Amino acid sequence: MPLLSSDDRAFLDALSRLAYCNPFTPQRIELERVALGTGFDEAASTWSKQSDWDRERPNVIKLRERCTPLANELRCQLADRAATTERELDLYENLIAYLLYDRYRAQFATASEHSPGQGKQQFAFWAEFRKDAQHYLPGTGVGWFSQYDVEHLFACCFQVCRAFRQIFHHIFGGSTPAAQLRARVWQSIFTHDMRRYRRSLFTRMADFTTLITGPSGTGKELVARAISLSRYVPLEGKRGASQDGLEDCFFPLNLSALSSTLIESELFGHSRGAFTGAVADRVGWLETCPQLGTVFLDEIGDLDAAIQVKLLRVLQSRTFQRLGETTDRSFQGKIIAATNQDLETKTRDGSFRNDFYFRLCSDILTTPSLQEQLVDRPADLSNLVATCVQRVVGEEAGDLSEEVVQWINEHLGHDYPWPGNFRELEQCVRNIVIRREYQPRSSAANVIMDPRDRLASEIAAGTLTAEEVLRRYCTLIYAETGSYEQTARRLKLDRRTVKSKIDPVLLDRLNPPNVLE
């Protein structure tokens, strides 16, 4: 007789895939729907930046209510069985892994708030976690049964919770481009196959260099920090503490702001007398960076060719030398680079080394512009402004957010392209807080997308509702004709319908009000 009924097998199959899927993709929603069947709550199926990142969702609660009694029942059955199929054992392992993560999620969430500067971390709930793991996974041949493997399971659960928190904390927006970025950052941390990551790749992710591309002001350093602070931290089971801390783990260096000599000194370090002014030995960031640390090289496209050669050696052999020395030193951490330039074009014109580029591009992320996000989801402006205002003024954010959004809509309009991206949005908020006005650079005003082109672009992207299309189109034609009757004839609509669809804000941007009837 099989261990699992057909219904339990179907549930555990969906749960197994759910436990290892990317939580920022639509697949998570579909797997929850399959697992819960008619009990799935559609209204609580999506992550929201405006919600608490660690809130208890109804579907998660329903999954727990199904998992707990099933785990208890299967454990008893496994203890009495002489033989069980490999697939049944695998489904049981995945059930217990999911259940343990869910059972201790609140404790993992609290531990995720541990400051990176506080050194090694003590986990008061480790003993209880280990006891539960050993209860459900006794030494009978069912998977994670050695002490080491329970420690690894704990470390993986902690990393998953920490990564989820970091991604939500650093990547803003509810648009499709923002959601896609969160999903890709999750892959940069865990790869697309979390089972393989759990088995072996968790020790090797520092060997993969991440290259973040995108326009200036789109949060490339925030993405780098999210990845850096989400790395795997081993657990020392005897003490119930992390083997290493994440203190001083992120080392950002803006390459465009320093001379070549200073860049070399900052990265590689130097010995006394290596160059004029080198009056003492200096330890560079490649040497300072611990095994769990990350060196972030911003504006990598501006890097001098000679330093590209030296960094190429670091990426190939993970060794380097201080300036003025011949002794090889080892780099143990991870490198993340960023640029707003087209490195492929720079390799073709010879200003960026081809071999260096191919060492950088094992993992590429692209941050979307603010305009891309707002074209996809115009209503997201309010949420993004609220995030900026909260950071700027704290408890006064509520009323001020509405004031800022109203000013932007009235003076910049829906079509303003935000050439400075999130950095410009934050400065716009600060200007309005101080003076209740914001004056964009003239160059920015000149590149505002024509409303006709904007409408065509959004229709092509499929981001508008039928009502929005009709309002925009009626307003565009009315701006040309200056007459409700002519607009109605051209569009084969009733005059009253045309008049009700005119968007006054868009109309003011298209034509001066006194030109129209």
The amount of beta strand, in percent, is 5-15%
Structural category: alpha/beta
Number of helices: 25
Q: What number of structural domains do the residues give?
A: 4
Q: What summary fits the major beta sheet?
A: 5 strands, parallel
- In helices, the fraction of residues equals 40-55%
Mean pLDDT: 86
Indicate the overall shape.
flat
Strand order of the largest sheet: 4-7-10-1-11
Radius of gyration: 28 Å
**How many beta-strand segments?**
11
Separation, N- and C-terminal Cα atoms: 82 Å
**Which regions contain 5 or more consecutive residues with pLDDT less than 50?**
48-52, 140-148, 443-447, 513-517
What's this model, at a glance?
Helices cover 55% and strands 7% of the residues.
Give the helix/strand layout:
Layout: H1 6-19, H2 26-36, H3 58-80, H4 86-103, H5 105-112, H6 126-136, H7 147-170, H8 176-190, H9 194-199, E1 210-213, H10 220-228, E2 235-236, E3 241-242, E4 250-254, H11 260-268, E5 269-270, E6 282-283, H12 285-288, E7 294-298, H13 305-317, E8 319-320, E9 329-330, E10 334-339, H14 343-348, H15 354-360, E11 363-366, H16 370-376, H17 380-393, H18 397-411, H19 421-435, H20 442-445, H21 451-461, H22 466-481, H23 484-491, H24 495-501, H25 504-510
Parallel strand pairs: 1-10, 1-11, 4-7, 7-10
Antiparallel strand pairs: 2-3, 5-6, 8-9
Helix pairs in contact: 1-2, 1-4, 3-4, 5-7, 7-8, 7-10, 13-15, 17-18, 17-19, 21-22, 22-23, 22-25, 23-24
Main features:
five-stranded parallel beta sheet, Rossmann fold, two-stranded antiparallel ribbon, flat, 4 domains, 517 residues, alpha/beta
